[in-house]
Amino acid sequence: MTAFPLILLLLSLFLLNHSLSTAANIHKKGHFRPKLKSHLSKTNITTFFEVTKPIQVPRTKPCSYLLLQHDFGHTYELPPVLANYTPPSDCQCQNFAKIVLQWEAKSNGTQFDRIFGVWLGGVELLRSCTAEPTATGIVWTVKKDITRYYSLLMSNQTLAVYLGNIVTNVYTGVYHVILTVHFYPAEVSTGINGNILTTVNKSVSSVGWVKSSYGKITTNSTQRFDFSNFMVLREGGNLQIVNQTISFNDSVHAKLPSSSVLSIKSTKRFPLYLYTDEVEEGNATFLLVTNLTLGYNEKKRVKAGDFGLFDSSLKNLRNGQGVLLVVNNSVVAGIGSTQEVYRYDDSTFCYFRNVSSSNYTILYDKEGKSCRK
Ligand SMILES: *[C@@H]1O[C@H](CO)[C@@H](O)[C@H](O)[C@H]1NC(C)=O
Ligand SMILES: *[C@@H]1O[C@H](CO)[C@@H](O)[C@H](O)[C@H]1NC(C)=O
Ligand SMILES: *[C@@H]1O[C@H](CO)[C@@H](O)[C@H](O)[C@H]1NC(C)=O
Ligand SMILES: *[C@@H]1O[C@H](CO)[C@@H](O)[C@H](O)[C@H]1NC(C)=O
Ligand SMILES: *[C@@H]1O[C@H](CO)[C@@H](O)[C@H](O)[C@H]1NC(C)=O
Ligand SMILES: *[C@@H]1O[C@H](CO)[C@@H](O)[C@H](O)[C@H]1NC(C)=O
Ligand SMILES: *[C@@H]1O[C@H](CO)[C@@H](O)[C@H](O)[C@H]1NC(C)=O
Ligand SMILES: *[C@@H]1O[C@H](CO)[C@@H](O)[C@H](O)[C@H]1NC(C)=O
Ligand SMILES: *[C@@H]1O[C@H](CO)[C@@H](O)[C@H](O)[C@H]1NC(C)=O
Ligand SMILES: *[C@@H]1O[C@H](CO)[C@@H](O)[C@H](O)[C@H]1NC(C)=O
Ligand SMILES: *[C@@H]1O[C@H](CO)[C@@H](O)[C@H](O)[C@H]1NC(C)=O
Ligand SMILES: *[C@@H]1O[C@H](CO)[C@@H](O)[C@H](O)[C@H]1NC(C)=O
Question: Per the confidence metrics, is the pTM higher than 0.70?
Fold first, then answer.
């Protein structure tokens, strides 16, 4: 058995120095370091690279972790270097669109190219061959898309790295390796953002008559309906604002042969305001913040010929605020508060109530039964 590894692969490598000159370097198996007496700079480190298609990553900031930093000196007959792997727990997002393994290594001196491998939980993530160092040093980086090992990467594992190297008086190059993993959160801009305004209005008017025992009664009825909905979506739909108002007015006139008039007129307004926002807190945690305002307003006027007028009004406004703490998609805590004002008023009866609660406790509750006139 030879003390030197057999070089299994014939690789065509390209070397580049700062003046961008390149030299082809074909390795053959054997005991001698291939001659590479080059015109390369004696003081500047050489970057080795291979031309390949870049990995397409989302435009998000990756959560990057150092997996292992190790200097591979005399490692030829030793077991692989082991390290404990734990999944990213302190990353703001836990939904990753891309996971990239990065191997970065440096070496100087004289050395063979060496085969190496990276395993996670026994699964091979990367298998490659080192670049050969020069006296002034060589540096290279390998990136690999390891998104397909997603489930493996989401649990504790043992990381193993083997690089069988030999350091002697002649073969002096130690491989200094830094192994990193980059978790790229999915882009959130896939949701909808924008402002949407919807308005609808409708007006219906009808006139008719009936002949009754009272004589001919002419009826005039009008209905007007107005709907306006303004919706704001931000943060890919995480923030939503709805500001909506419905207005509905109707009136009915009936003219009797005695020329007295019966009429009912009602104006109604229903405002609605809803604000919801998901505030990311990191660690799979977010706050769901909600504000809600709901109103019911109605004014009514009934005219009954000689019997006079009957006016009434109802105003009801309800506000609510809620904050839910959501961890790992479950609600773990929450607090809510409400404020409500109710006011009914007609010429004979009034009722007023002003009540508020927070966290299941009544803060105040005021009631009034007399008209403030
Ligand atoms: C090393 O690189 C620097 C920057 O590219 C350059 O200015 C310098 O001349 C180089 N040195 C040699 C000895 O080539
Ligand atoms: C190469 O590395 C050795 C230590 O491993 C260091 O003493 C030496 O200065 C380095 N040579 C160059 C040219 O960087
Ligand atoms: C994973 O490893 C970390 C760090 O050693 C430990 O705190 C955690 O409990 C482990 N998780 C599981 C599911 O074993
Ligand atoms: C009702 O809708 C029509 C058509 O969209 C518009 O021209 C008109 O101004 C609206 N009227 C009111 C009162 O909003
Ligand atoms: C019907 O009522 C509306 C408003 O109440 C009025 O403008 C209209 O002139 C009336 N039409 C008839 C035919 O009485
Ligand atoms: C209903 O009547 C109120 C008060 O007169 C008015 O402000 C509102 O614009 C009307 N709405 C419709 C849909 O006619
Ligand atoms: C809702 O829209 C109406 C009309 O555009 C505006 O007057 C009101 O201030 C808005 N309400 C809120 C809470 O933004
Ligand atoms: C996430 O949780 C870990 C452990 O519970 C904690 O050390 C870290 O500070 C948290 N990160 C954030 C952003 O809250
Ligand atoms: C939500 O309600 C709270 C409490 O009334 C208030 O402080 C906050 O400004 C409201 N936020 C929005 C966006 O309406
Ligand atoms: C979230 O769920 C994962 C998997 O179910 C679990 O490992 C982790 O500890 C949970 N995180 C928190 C903060 O509860
Ligand atoms: C309801 O009561 C609260 C607390 O006393 C007060 O601040 C608020 O103005 C009242 N609202 C009305 C409509 O009277
Ligand atoms: C809400 O009420 C619960 C039970 O009374 C209490 O433990 C908690 O601290 C309260 N939360 C807030 C924010 O006041």
Answer: no
